[in-house]
Amino acid sequence: MSENNLFPRRSNIFKGNIRDVRDSVARPSLDTFYQVIFSFGNFEKWLKGSNIASNLKRNQGRDFQRKMSLLCTQAELPGTSYNTDTAVGHHQGIQETFPNLRNYPPLNLVFYCDADMIILEVLETWMSYINPIQTNKRVTNAYSRFNYPENYKEIIHITKFERDTFLPDKADKEFKSNLSSYEFVNVWPTNLTSMRIAYGDSNVLRCSVEFVYDRFFTRFNYEDPNQAVVNTPENIINSNDQQFQPLPVKREDGKFTTTGTNSISPFLIN
């Protein structure tokens, strides 16, 4: 039997150091170690005029983003898919499939509701700002007009870690668990589900929200919790990530230099 055979011999299965097997089998990733961070940059626009922004006596409402992070009891690591087209070569007898559009599924989050209803008010105010009702009277006809997307789209981060990620002194440095992060860009809520309330056994009220977004970026296996998620993979240039050189300016000696510096520009023109 050739050594490159597709099916290995029984003696070659699990052949290696027992520590390698332990690292692969005995250390599964647990779904209870995660954190959702709400990096809202436009909330002063869509939260303006609410009780959270105006009533400072509601102490728990001062840092609503932290409250949302702590009370987010369920989240999702996103998947992705492609729409495809099929090219058929009728004479060659060959059929090939090509991608034409990448799809991003909705992000579903579940929150425990606090007694002050801070989280519910934030979500309802956010959705009301997207399409506000323009009327001061409840009994008359009303109309609505959508606000600009750049005023209500936000960013959400989900960080996945493990039980031993933040331990200061690890007995075995070889099996350290690092961080993995997802950054969701241009997020906004599309569906705030109804919440059932009833007499009987008491349960914590939970609200489920469905968010849509334009895209997400990922970063895997890193140690620094303050390190940002990279928008583009290595060797792929994004227009937002480029470092543009200043335009070269002609000096008295006839050579060119970059604006505001005395160094010779890489675009030197003789």
Instruction: Say how many strands there are.
Output: 13
Outline the low-pLDDT stretches: 231-250, 256-270
Write down the domain tally.
2
Mean pLDDT: 76
H and E string: HEHHHEEEEHEEEEEEEE
Which of globular, elongated, flat, extended, rod-shaped describes the shape? extended
* Main sheet attributes: strand count, strand direction, barrel closure: 7 strands, antiparallel
User: Would you tell me the structural class of the helices and strands?
Assistant: alpha+beta
What is the overall number of helices? 5
First and last CA, distance: 67 Å
Strand residue content: 25-35%
Give the radius of gyration: 27 Å
Helix content: 10-25%
List the helices and strands and how they pair.
Blueprint (H helix, E strand, L loop, with lengths): L17 H8 L8 E6 L3 H4 L4 H4 L9 H7 L1 E3 L6 E9 L4 E10 L3 E6 L5 H13 L2 E2 L8 E2 L9 E7 L18 E14 L13 E7 L2 E8 L25 E3 L5 E3 L12
Antiparallel strand pairs: 1-8, 2-5, 3-4, 5-10, 6-7, 8-9, 9-10, 9-11, 12-13
